[in-house]
Specification:
four-stranded antiparallel beta sheet; D-Maltodextrin-Binding Protein, domain 2; about 15% strand; 13 strands; signal; SBP; 2 domains; globular; Bact_solute-bd_prot1; Carbohydrate ABC transporter substrate-binding protein (CUT1 family)
Length: about 425
Amino acid sequence: MTVKTIRKRALAVAAAAALALAVAACGSDGGGGSTTSEGKTTMVWNMWSGSTAEVDAWNHLSQMVTAKHPDLALDFQTSSFNDYWTKLAAQASGGDAGCILGVQSYRAPSISQLLVPLDDMLAGAGINAADYDPSIWKALQVDGQQLAVPYDFGPLLMFYNADRFREAGVPIPTTSWTVQDFISAAQSLTSGGKHGFAVYPTIDSVTPWSLSLEGTGPLNAQGELDLTQEGFVKAVQWYADLVTQLKVAPQVVATNDATPALNSFIAGDAAMVVDGPWQLVNVMDQAQFEVGVAPIPAGDSGSHSQVAGSGFGISQTCPDPDKALQAIAVLTGPEALQYLAEQGRAFPARTAQQDAWFSPELAGAKDGLLAAIKNGVPAPATENYQQVNQLFMQYGVEAVNGQQSVPDFLNSVQQQAG
């Protein structure tokens, strides 16, 4: 199950520099937008991006909006995923958030007060919930109110460097591979300064292992954060042991980089990494090897990952919510999601467009993704999820590197965020 990429690493270096320029060019002034005396409206669209390929994709969708509504233009303003949430909080506190906001299902509860409920507006904009996968449609609701229209969803997956697997004579992962298969492969692929796997301590990256190994996630049966549950602690310890005991993953360094593990994989330094289907556009654009996709390997509790996704909502400070929803109807419409699917940026939330993600060069990913979706579970979400994730990264580096015990690390995060 592989997808062929043809880009060279030199392009990745150029892309990184170009992204910095693109982000700067997109602006950072915030504000909802403005309308001229001629009736031409410009609205700020705040969204995250991880590469120039993503920036290009979002700008293409922005052009789709203007093509559909000539009196409406979007001022696309972007930043890295981690920075996006920090900037959004600052902009919101100053009443300076954009009209259209990117909303991730994990973090919808924590920003619900910033968003306009859409339920009474959807029909007027021609948006029908029945056109979207019900799991992600519901995941973007808070207290029964629809706060965003989804564009993508999916589980976390295992990306692997098929070239390194073949060179080492290691069996290619299948949809039925196990945790023991994963460990065996990672050990065989760790040599010569390169590693079999790349880790970074985020709550998102640990959760699929906890679900598969122990059958538990970071929330208890009452939906409350409980990082000290025995099963979750054991799973995080197992994750840390990949670095400290098995040494199939390198020690991690604290960074502001949103995707350090993925970048290690793209550079060819790690043979496997866990990330989502939304990252395939970046992997394809930058990696110079053949990439494979597999579900999370099965542990004692099976193969499971949380299923999450993202969409677009309207800020409470937007002066024209109806016009903003017209734009969102285009951004999440059939043509836009067909385009994002073909680019590998999004596994479409619209069910009719999902086959487009499996275009010829992505066909190898179909079995892995569909198997992961079949065994997926709803993503955990709490009002303080962003705070939990920040604390997890802040203190998790020492725990993963063996400089702090895992129970102490989780207790610290639980006490500060719980």
